[in-house]
Amino acid sequence: xxxxxIDLETTGLDPENCQILTxxxxxxxxxxxxxxxxxxxxxxxxxxxxxxxxxxAINMNKEIIESIVHYxxxxxDSEQFDLxxxxxxxxxxxxxxxxxxxxxxxxxxxxxxxxxxxGGYITRRNGKMLPAITNKTRPITISAAxxxxxxxxxxxxxxxxxxxxxxxxxxxVLDPSVLFTDWKNDDSLPGLSLCKERAxxxxxxxxxxxxxxxxxIELFRKSYI
Length: 225
Prior knowledge:
Blueprint: E1 2-10, E2 20-29, E3 41-47, H1 55-60, H2 62-72, H3 77-87, E4 90-93, H4 97-107, E5 122-125, E6 128-131, E7 140-142, E8 144-145, H5 149-157, H6 163-166, E9 167-169, H7 192-198, H8 209-224
Helix pairs in contact: 2-3
């Protein structure tokens, strides 16, 4: 089974009034377990002209916002490239996120080259031939995983331009908290830190989107490795 662990860093909790700052996504294949550092990873920072949200979330993510500002005020492409290499993130406009995510999925074999949904058109991305995005493109369907993904992250993602056209998330979402719930003593599902502690992992949560997405995979691996 293939699933994608997805995590967002945002400027707050309200998808109608807050913004996505970064998106982290990591592909796991339970039939082909690889070292964590070898898993295909998507890590993007979203460029905004204005930052709006809650003071708490904005302060917590101030380093991300500083990186976005640095990228936007860079003197040349070389400086922007250096920042991408330093942070491990691609910086992109909100309008480009869904398309970039779609092509990342395609590069990792979530769609066939001859898929009829592209109308027969192909494009070259990173040296690989892929179905081109056209007005006939059907969304790529994925199984998603994440801590509170269904009630939080997905509500932000579906508001991105063209997301619903290009990406479809299966209704059943994987949340690792049910694996680490103390059904006798817990009043609610445990948070990511407590899940990690109960799994025997370091319970630090970095609030880096890719790190958090990998944490979710580490938790699930306790059930199938």
